[in-house]
Amino acid sequence: MRRWLGRLPKRPNQRSREMEPSSVTPLFEGLEGQWAAVKDGKVVEVARTPDALFMALRSRNIKNATILRVPAHDDPEPVGLG
Predict the structure, then answer these.
(1) How many domains does the chain have?
(2) What domain range includes position 63?
(3) CA 22 to CA 71: how far, in whole Å?
(4) Which of 55, 56, 59, 69 has its CA 20 to 30 A from that of 19?
(5) Would the pTM count as exceeding 0.85?
């Protein structure tokens, strides 16, 4: 793989772009630091812990929802994960 990367064309005068801090999507506004379940483009449930969210979804018989933690403003930015 290293040989392949060495063959990438170099672009002269290419600068790295400055990244602007991104704000929370309007869908998650006001939910910072909480866990949210999204289904069909809508937030269907919110809880403070993933266990509480799972139990709420189970009690409402909601399946196939995407679960994520909405980052808080003071959360450190994840760098170097992967």
Answers:
(1) 1
(2) 36-70
(3) 11
(4) 69
(5) no
